[in-house]
């Protein structure tokens, strides 16, 4: 692998991670020069990274002006939340009748990590929020994986990057909501343990709607 390619890949991964965590918020205009300086590289790998990110829909390039970080369209946020609802409720229904003790233990461990991150928020420069967003994503993925349907898992994973970004945006918009989010996660865990799929469906719809400030039609 050439040095140029390695630098371009590193620039791509770093810039994309900043977009997903909200460090580069939607609507911000950035330049090749400032990113190259921050990464300690030349403009060429940054330019290649920008082009790749534009192809994926994360950026919009304006010659001689810079690159605009594309904001999350309101319809995309709603579509992702609706898709998540369909997959997550289907996964929990598929678990009905199964021994869910191992899954509940996994979810409880995630809840413990979430509570630790909430406690760290006051002493953090934003890193704890980013880690919480990732933990949130992993919490929900846990019961999708437990259902054991590879098609559901593959589709859910295709939403992961958009889900991470949505979580980061929601948390940075109202960071004090994290305590409420953990309470809702605990409620979802209890309903999975009880096998109450109908109540889980309702609780999940309320959770997704509240976190992302959406009115999910048809749910």
Automatic annotation (TrEMBL):
InterPro entries in the cross-refs: GntR_C, TF_FadR/GntR_C, Tscrpt_reg_HTH_GntR, WH-like_DNA-bd_sf, WH_DNA-bd_sf
Keywords, ordered alphabetically: DNA-binding, Transcription, Transcription regulation
Residue span(s) of domain HTH gntR-type: 5-72
Record-given protein name: GntR family transcriptional regulator
GO molecular function: DNA binding; DNA-binding transcription factor activity
Listed SUPFAM superfamilies: GntR ligand-binding domain-like, Winged helix' DNA-binding domain
Database matches in PANTHER family: GLUCONATE OPERON TRANSCRIPTIONAL REPRESSOR (PTHR43537:SF24), TRANSCRIPTIONAL REGULATOR, GNTR FAMILY (PTHR43537)
């Amino acid at each position: 692998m050439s040095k140029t390619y390695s630098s371009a890949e590193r620039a791509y991964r770093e810039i994309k991670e900043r977009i997903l965590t909200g460090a580069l918020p939607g609507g911000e205009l950035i330049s090749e020069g400032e990113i190259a300086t921050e990464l300690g590289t030349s403009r060429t790998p940054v330019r290649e990274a920008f082009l790749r990110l534009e192809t994926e829909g994360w950026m919009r390039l304006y010659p001689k002006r810079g690159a605009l970080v594309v904001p999350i369209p309101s319809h995309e946020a709603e579509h992702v939340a609706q898709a998540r609802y369909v997959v997550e409720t289907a996964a929990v229904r598929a678990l009905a009748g199964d021994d869910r003790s191992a899954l509940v233990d996994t979810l409880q461990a995630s809840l413990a990590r979430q509570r630790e991150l909430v406690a760290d928020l006051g002493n953090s420069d934003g890193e704890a929020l980013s880690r919480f967003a990732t933990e949130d994503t992993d919490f929900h993925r846990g019961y999708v994986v437990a259902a054991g349907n590879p098609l559901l898992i593959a589709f859910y994973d295709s939403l992961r990057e958009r889900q991470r970004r949505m979580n980061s945006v929601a948390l940075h918009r109202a960071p004090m909501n994290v305590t409420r989010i953990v309470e809702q996660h605990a409620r979802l865990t209890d309903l999975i343990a009880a096998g109450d799929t109908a109540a889980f469906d309702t609780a999940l719809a309320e959770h997704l709607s509240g976190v992302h400030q959406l009115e999910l039609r048809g749910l």
